[in-house]
Recover the amino acids of this structure.
């Protein structure tokens, strides 16, 4: 069992009704998919906001960062960096810089 | 004393404006959902404290919010809008893209919410790409009324500049199985069997922007309105032309009459006078602002043809805002109130059917929609 910390953008923190980081217990491999499944299970109001509900894929203007790396284009079942799985570094869900 | 609650959707949040029956002093709450585009906020006629809001954005998609206390608190409900008829690749058919090539139907956002007049748990949603969905559990889950897209002309529908959107839902107050919807840029469509089957109702419309000017579908209808006492009479603001039908859309005829321009977006009907109609003329499809920089609501008291400008309290110089299709509404107090919002962030109210106007607020984000609830 791993405890992963997720940092959400302001819009999604408000939607989920949370302050600060979200801590999630992950059973098994710590992947993007496992983390997002656990996030949506804890906060079902976030379903469809990070991943398109019809395709299951990351929305175009959402990015995933951790450990100073852009993980947005990694396969959803690819293991996240060890410091994320260890809970020492957060997994960042980021709204891309765009628009006005 | 009766009250009114004005529900305002903007580019950056929702606002709720409330006043007593005098409509002279307003309380403003908001922004609700700050930073999000709120295409529409609508109250349930059956349970007026129940509100629905369409919250969307380019980053995080579509959220539907529901309030059961008149907008004091909100909770997200269902936001899955899955088109019927998807093939093994998940593609639920195609419509035409701007260049006339086939394009898969893709959900983008909810433009309009239409709560049932009788059941607080039932609400319709008009969406982009154009389709109609219904929830019977208070917004928890949504099912497409797929007979609309599937009636035959759907593959030929083409988007207008704002997208291929179903933006107007007009239930017939006499008959819950009957309603008319409007789609840009496909036209008006009617069902008589609660959404199972549909037919285009566009005869009499002419649009210069399409190859066959009087085609059965392809017209950019901007908005429809009716008076509950006379539901066979429909009023339409088309891309160009203000139109009327006296047989539920069977045949349309033009009532633009002496308007300074017949381009515009919203159209609405006085709460107590079925022949009193309001429009906001806009210069043209390339100049989305009032003619001569003068913001004028036009009122016809004869069901069209003859129109009078209503200007008292509205800016009569240097005004270059637009009024979008869902941004006008009326209350049903004894002296009918009329309300509209602008892309400049003003919400204007008239407590005397349009004779005089005052801004309730002046500096909101661009207003996308205005609805009014008349409360006991």
């Amino acid at each position: 069992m791993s405890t992963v910390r997720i940092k959400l953008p302001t819009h999604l923190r408000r939607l989920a009704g949370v302050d600060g980081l979200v801590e999630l217990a992950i059973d098994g491999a710590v992947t993007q998919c496992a983390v997002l499944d656990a996030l949506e299970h804890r906060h079902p109001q976030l379903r469809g906001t990070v991943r398109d509900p019809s395709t299951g894929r990351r929305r175009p203007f959402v990015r995933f960062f951790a450990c100073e790396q852009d993980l947005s284009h990694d396969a959803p079942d690819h293991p996240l960096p060890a410091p994320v799985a260890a809970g020492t570094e957060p997994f960042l869900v980021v709204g891309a810089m765009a628009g006005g | 004393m009766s009250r009114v609650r004005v529900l305002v959707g903007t580019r950056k949040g929702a606002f709720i404006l409330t006043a007593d029956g005098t409509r002279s002093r307003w309380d403003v709450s908001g922004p609700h959902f700050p930073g999000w585009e709120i295409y529409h906020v609508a109250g349930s006629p059956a349970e007026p404290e129940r509100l629905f809001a369409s919250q969307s954005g380019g980053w995080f998609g579509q959220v539907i919010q529901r309030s059961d206390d008149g907008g004091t608190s909100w909770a997200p409900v269902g936001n899955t809008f899955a088109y019927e008829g998807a093939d093994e690749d998940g593609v639920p058919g195609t419509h035409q893209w701007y260049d006339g090539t086939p394009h898969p139907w893709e959900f983008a956002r909810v433009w309009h919410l239409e709560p049932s007049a009788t059941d607080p748990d039932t609400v319709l949603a008009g969406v982009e790409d154009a389709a109609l969905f219904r929830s019977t559990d208070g917004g928890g889950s949504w099912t497409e009324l797929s007979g609309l897209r599937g009636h035959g002309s759907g593959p030929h529908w083409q988007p207008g500049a704002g997208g291929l959107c179903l933006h107007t839902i007009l239930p017939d107050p006499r008959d819950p199985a009957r309603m008319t919807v409007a789609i840009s840029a496909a036209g008006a469509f009617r069902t008589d069997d609660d959404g199972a089957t549909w037919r285009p109702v566009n005869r009499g419309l002419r649009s210069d922007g399409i190859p066959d000017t009087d085609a059965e579908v392809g017209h950019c209808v901007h908005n429809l309105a009716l008076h509950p006492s006379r539901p066979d009479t429909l009023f339409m603001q088309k891309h160009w032309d203000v139109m009327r039908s006296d047989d539920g859309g069977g045949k349309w005829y033009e009532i633009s009459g002496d308007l300074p321009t017949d381009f515009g977006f919203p159209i609405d009907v006085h709460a107590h006078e079925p022949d009193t109609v309001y429009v906001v003329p806009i210069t043209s499809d390339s100049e989305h602002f009032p003619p001569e920089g003068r913001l004028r609501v036009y009122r016809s008291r004869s069901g069209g043809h003859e129109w009078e400008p209503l200007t008292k309290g509205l800016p009569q110089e240097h005004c270059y805002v637009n009024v979008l299709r869902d941004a006008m509404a009326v209350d049903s107090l004894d002296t009918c109130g009329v309300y509209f919002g602008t892309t400049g962030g003003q919400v204007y109210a008239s407590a005397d059917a349009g004779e005089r106007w005052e801004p309730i607020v002046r500096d909101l984000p661009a207003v996308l929609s205005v609805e009014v609830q008349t409360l006991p």
